[in-house]
Amino acid sequence: MSDRNGVTCNAVLPGWTKTPMADDLVRQMAAAKEEASMRPGLRRWRLRRRSGPLDPQEIADTVAFLASDAASGINGETVKIALGGVW
């Protein structure tokens, strides 16, 4: 429930997200011959979903929901949007 002024405060914690910066980091890591250390993380992602890293729209949709009247009863929560694990 929001405070008496209608203000809510929630946190969104996104995981690895498909962005140009993240793609560049993967290229750099592969170039540094760390590709083998990245493969276990990729396998975990593939088991859970086909699309790999989060799409920025998934994060935006969550933020839009939390900012909407539909989420007026959600306050003081942390929403983790992640695939479980890092590279």
Average pLDDT works out at: 78
Order of neighbouring strands in the sheet with most strands: 1-2
How much β-strand is present in the residues?
5-15%
Total helical segments: 3
**Which structural class do the helices and strands define?**
mainly alpha
Q: Give the overall form.
A: elongated
Number of structurally distinct domains = 1
What does this structure look like?
This protein has a two-stranded parallel sheet. The radius of gyration is 17 Å and the shape is elongated. The protein has one domain (11-81). It has helices spanning 20-31, 35-48, 56-67, and strands at 11-14, 78-81. The protein has 87 residues and is mainly alpha-helical.
Search tags:
mainly alpha; two-stranded parallel ribbon; 2 strands
Short structural summary:
This protein is mainly alpha-helical and 87 residues long.
Task: Give the SSE layout.
Layout: E1 11-14, H1 20-31, H2 35-48, H3 56-67, E2 78-81
